[in-house]
Amino acid sequence: MLTIDGSTGEGGGQILRTSLSLAMVTGQPVRIEHIRAKRPKPGLMRQHLACVLAAQAVSGAQVSGAELGSQTLVFEPGALRPGEHTFAIGSAGSCLLVLQTVLPALMLADAPSQLKLSGGTHNPLAPNFHFIERAFLPQLARLGVKVEATLRRHGFYPAGGGEMVATIEPAVGGLRPVDLLERGAVGEAFAESLVAAVPRRVAERELALLKDALGWSDEQLRVPNVRQNEGPGNALIATLGFEHVTEVFTSFGEKSLSSEQVAKRLLRQMKEYAASTAAAGPYLADQLALPWALAVHQTGRAAAYTCSEVTEHTRTNLEVIQRFLPLRADLKREDARRWRLSWEPMG
For site-directed labelling of 20, which of 68, 151, 207, 319 has its Cα 20 to 30 A away? Predict the structure, then answer.
């Protein structure tokens, strides 16, 4: 049994989720200790427990320690169970983190799957639905995996109540390693402000500030229809399309923040990405680490991508992946705002 120390590096929930993902993929039993040791409330919170239970359902695992507050978990995966699954987090915990946990195994399964997920779809500390749909899933398609995600109901923190469906078609013949080194030609760029049970003038003010700062046209500034009973919530989202990659940046409204502050937070993220020539921003770089590693592991062929920043979260993720798979993550800094991550087989 492999033992993973959950207090290493970033010391958060990603160590748990990546360990569960790779235990299911490899069949490797794992013991995770000191879960979320560096968080103010260590141990399994509700959304982390939801990830454990989802992984158990998908893999028929034998599990001990799956309870709220537990700081030690033993997970012994069984046979993979693709098909239809429904997972309800029961809070504003992120649906997308549950999807992130079980997707690596299901995208390598021998049959399609459909996941119905309820909980948070737009959370400040997790990838949101629009990021996953527009930035992450198209990169999985390049590896050969087809995932269609449908948002049925927004779920903002702290109320939750969101609903989404993901249909997963595994890669036919296995994953295809690819390189993602350049953005390519510039494509569509637009911003949208989601407001639910929040005055529309908030959205209009946020978008007006972006228009002044970016010089964008009115057609690039949108207020999508969101049912008011899906709130309260506000998310300001910018989508930047390129030939080889789409990046999505989000700034969430809060009671204590003005529209100016929300817009400035988004503009700061966009400015940092614009100052780099790398393909992926810091959050997409983190999401791509495991799929890229699995493609290299399956084929024995190296693959790489570039990113504008390597966070502590990403570095910790790379360490966990290398505990499970016989791969080497080669990180090279090409300039001040451009890194290259290459996954290479060992030996």
Answer: 151
